[in-house]
Amino acid sequence: MRYLMIVAVDGDPDTSDAPETSIDDWFTQLNERGQWVMGERLRPPEAATLVRVRNGETMITDETFAETKEWIAGFDILDCATLDDAIHVAATHPMARGGRIELRPFWPIDDAKA
Amino acid sequence: MRDRPEPAGVSSAADAVEQAYRQEWAQVVATTIRVARDIQIAEDCVQEAFTAALLKWPHEGVPDRPGAWLTTVAVRNALQVHRRNATLTRKLPQLLPDDPGALPVDPSSGTVFEQLPDDRLRLIFTCCHPALAPEARVALTLRLVCGLTSVEVAKAFLVTQSTMQARITRAKKKIADAGIAYRTPDPAEFPERLTSVLDTVHLVFNEGYRPASGDLLIRADLTARALQTARMLHELLPHSAETTALLALLLLIEARRDARVDSHGEAVDLEHQDRSRWDRALIDEGLTLLAAAVRGDDAGKYTVMASLAAVHDTSAGWAQTDWAHMLALYDVLQQHWPTPVVALARAVAVSFARGPDEGLAALEPLVHDPALTTYPYLPAARADMLRRLGRVDDAAAGYREAILLTANAAEARFFQGRIDDLTARD
């Protein structure tokens, strides 16, 4: 199953002295298990452009989806057998402590009716 | 009547079906889901199997192993559904099997070779997966593990049937769409997942023991379901201290049930309960289980909570309550599981161990806690301490606030009774 892993900065990082995980270890392990499809770090919301079409007119604005203190810092596409596997991948990413991570299963293309 | 007897065995067969429903439901559902790999299909097929039993057992006799018979019929139905769907080439959202090779059926006949006790664990761990909302976990557990109909689950939580149906459907859809596997967790994640299961059962029990709304003081149907599920978990995980402790906790509290309601159906607090009405057999069972849990390696919050319940259950009377021991246990609980509700209970213990003025001081930081703004037991606890300090007007104001916050009519009458006592004293 494929999951989009959305990595967000929420301004409320974990400040405990629990051991840090490094992004390099995370990435190595993920690839050894064949669970990483692709992923990128994103420029901050200041670089975002919002596009929508209303009444046939394309409206372009210099903003991001939601004006909150939370912003999307990057994403990865995972290929995991179960949600539990994806949760494990997300929980071992350093940004699970630095911010928070959302997991969204892909909507299969032949299942569009559901 | 004698000359026109009913066909032999109708009533005994119906009894057997009902007994199977009570005792085998979880196992039949759990095994059928593993084979059907789809919760909805499995549920429908299990329902059909019970209907078939009602029709067939009076004539064919009650099978030696009713659970295996029901599972076989349900699984056969499920395989038929899958065949039909395969011909329609419709792709079903399928549950992820734990071990696809271990299909316990003969696919040609649908005969079930084995029902694993493990299946019931798979079922309850799936129903209580932390990726589901807590109220969805409760609803799924009551429906799939306890066998309540969605109408009954809706009644239990005083929501409309359509609301509950939607909640259950949404939860099942999330299980299929998000890839929640039908399995017991890995050892690394087991303790956290087990807590989610135990918390769900505890939540069902609490809703039965202290209904948040309605007119009843106790919902015995819910406490019985929670106890039944806790017993099942203990049977399946006999070495888990926390599972043992949860069962002990529920038994130690359930033992006081009859004494909590007086002959007029009104609430009686712990102080005024007739302790001779406590169920000694349940207390003894609870204490034995607690002793086993305390010896375990993974003793946690349920072990501490059961120990707290045991202090009351073993005390000769209210006046003899060992409040110092209670307070020490609450300190442990608060240290490891700091929640506002635990802090509130601890403040009450402080008020009895060291006096109501110290209790009030312990309560003070909680007054502005957003988690407790609508919690009736906060003003009620405060009012009780003020009453013991002789501050009658302040106490009455506190009880009035508690009345405004509770949605349970019987509880509101209890608080009103406290106000009446205060004014009578003047």
Provide an overview of this structure:
The complex is a heterodimer of chains A (114) and B (426). Chain A is α+β, with helices and mostly antiparallel strands and 114 residues long. Chain A contains three helices and six strands. Chain A has helices at residues 23-32, 83-92, 95-98, and strands spanning 2-9, 36-41, 50-54, 57-61, 71-79, 100-105. Chain A is globular. By secondary structure, chain B is mostly helical. Among the domains of chain B are: 10-115, no CATH class; 117-216, no CATH class; 339-426, Tetratricopeptide repeat domain (Serine Threonine Protein Phosphatase 5, Tetratricopeptide repeat, Alpha Horseshoe). Chain B is 65% helix and 2% strand. Chain B is built from 18 helices and four strands. Chain B has a two-stranded antiparallel sheet. In chain B, β1 (105-106) and β2 (111-112) form a beta hairpin. In chain B, α2 (39-60) crosses α3, α5 (134-145) packs across α7 (161-178) and α12 packs antiparallel against α13.
Keywords:
heterodimer; A: 114 residues; alpha+beta; Alpha-Beta Plaits; two-stranded antiparallel sheet; 6 strands; globular; B: 426 residues; Serine Threonine Protein Phosphatase 5, Tetratricopeptide repeat; two-stranded parallel ribbon; 18 helices; disordered N terminus
